[in-house]
Each structure stands twice: as structure tokens, then as C-alpha cells.
Design a protein that fits this description.
The complex is a heterodimer of chains A (about 110) and B (about 120).
Chain A lengths: L3 E3 L2 E5 L4 E7 L6 E7 L5 E8 L4 E4 L2 E6 L4 E6 L8 E8 L8 E2 L3 E6 L1
Parallel strand pairs in A: 2-11
Antiparallel strand pairs in A: 1-3, 3-8, 4-5, 4-9, 6-7, 7-8, 9-10, 9-11
Chain B lengths: L4 E3 L2 E4 L5 E6 L6 E8 L3 E9 L2 E4 L8 E7 L2 E6 L8 E8 L9 E2 L3 E5 L1
Parallel strand pairs in B: 2-11
Antiparallel strand pairs in B: 1-3, 3-8, 4-5, 4-9, 5-6, 7-8, 9-10, 9-11
The chains are: A mainly beta (about 110), B mainly beta (about 120).
Chain lengths: ~110, ~120
């Protein structure tokens, strides 16, 4: 069955890097996603990675995928107070035809 | 497009009452999902539709929950009768079924409190 695990809390100082980790169980996962949820809002897609990639960089965001260990991470460089939010890891295993399976989310707190 | 629109944003009701949550997906999206978010369980998929047809409702907690999608631009999630343990934030999301960039767009959610 599908299962996505994340640590629940992370606290970092402003300007430091944040690393949010996620493990998943379904080896047939094709797409892996990071969503961000700000207080009182819905989820917004931050970035995604296809399973044939090891890394993806997008401005301050770096996604690393270790398929052997089924481990996904999101690194936020130069973390700002506006990055404080809940970050969800999600997986899906066909293009557009199956719903996303989400982890419980990691609450990132950025200390000024 | 205004995005996925959910109503109401907040709902407070008494135990035993019927509650109806509403969702308008993004025009042209042929998948619609209902999720429930709680601190204990995170985001749980309740049900999803493809072209207005329910595909998988195995996440619906029990018979008190029902969902409909009478047309491509509207869906409802109904709880009857409601119980305090139904208190949660309910999200609707939609996406297209084509292309490999399968981004799901979420509404802002309905915060339900059953007292």
C-alpha cells in the first residue's frame, strides 16, 4: 500500500537552510511533489520531480530523490520568515490518473 | 479563472445536523478530489471523480458521508447526521487528466466545527 512519512516539525533560523525529509513506500511512484500550505489556505504546488531524476533545482529550492532508499528531500536555501508553513510530500504513480497520496506535513517555523 | 472555489469557508453546526459543503472546480478540469485534513491524520482522500463519475469512494469514513457531482462545475459533500469527530478542514481539489505535470489545484477549504 501507499504510505508517505514525514517528520512533523522543523525549526530553523532565518538565513539558514531548511531540509525537509520524506519517505515513501510505493516503489512504482512515478511523480513526487512538494506542496506548501500557508495558514488558513489551501495547498499550493511548490515543485515536483519525475522518478527518473535524482535532483531538481528551482531558485532557492532543491529537491533530491533517492529511489533506492525511497527518500525525498526538499532543501530551502536562505530560509525566510515567509517560508513558515506546512510542507507536504506527495506521490502519484501514473500521469494524471490517480489521486495524490500525501504525508501528514512538516510544520516549518522560521525564527527571525 | 478564479481557481477552485469552496463554500462556506467556515461552518459551525450542532451534532446531528446535516452539513453540505460545496465546490466549484477550475473550468476544464476533469478530476475532482475531496480531502479532509486533521492534526491526527493529516490529509486523507475521501473520494474523487473523473468526468463527474465517482471513481473511488473508499476513503469516505462511513455512510453518513455522501458526495455528488451533478455536472462538471459543481460538487457537494454532505454529512448527515454530523458528529463532533467530523470537525476538520475539508478541501476540494481539481486537475486535468492529461499531461504529466499533474498539478492539483486546491480550494481554500471549509473549516467545519461540529459542537
Amino acid at each position: 500500500g501507499e504510505d508517505v512519512e514525514q517528520s512533523l516539525f522543523l525549526s530553523v533560523r532565518e538565513g539558514d537552510s531548511s531540509v525537509i525529509n520524506c519517505t515513501y513506500t510505493d516503489s512504482s511512484s512515478t511523480y513526487l511533489y512538494w506542496y506548501k500550505q500557508e495558514p488558513g489556505a489551501g495547498l499550493q504546488l511548490l515543485t515536483y520531480i519525475f522518478s527518473n531524476m535524482d535532483m531538481k533545482q528551482d531558485q532557492r529550492l532543491t529537491v533530491l530523490l533517492n529511489k533506492k532508499d525511497k527518500h525525498l528531500s526538499l532543501r530551502i536555501a536562505d530560509t525566510q520568515t515567509g517560508d513558515s508553513a506546512i510542507y507536504f510530500c506527495a506521490e502519484s504513480y501514473t500521469s494524471g490518473n490517480t489521486p495524490l497520496v500525501f504525508g501528514k506535513g512538516t510544520r516549518l517555523s522560521v525564527i527571525a | 479563472d478564479a481557481g477552485v472555489i469552496q463554500s462556506p469557508r467556515h461552518e459551525v453546526t450542532e451534532m446531528g445536523q446535516e452539513v453540505t459543503l460545496r465546490c466549484k472546480p477550475i473550468s476544464g478540469h476533469d478530476y475532482l478530489f475531496w480531502y479532509r485534513q486533521t492534526m491526527m491524520r493529516g490529509l486523507e482522500l475521501l473520494i474523487y471523480f473523473n468526468n463527474n463519475v465517482p471513481i473511488d469512494d473508499s476513503g469516505m469514513p462511513e455512510d453518513r458521508f455522501s458526495a455528488k457531482m451533478p455536472n462538471a462545475s459543481f460538487s457537494t459533500l454532505k454529512i448527515q447526521p454530523s458528529e463532533p469527530r467530523d470537525s476538520a478542514v475539508y478541501f476540494c481539489a481539481s486537475r486535468t487528466g492529461t499531461g504529466w505535470e499533474t498539478e492539483a489545484f486546491f480550494g481554500q477549504g471549509t473549516r467545519l466545527t461540529v459542537v
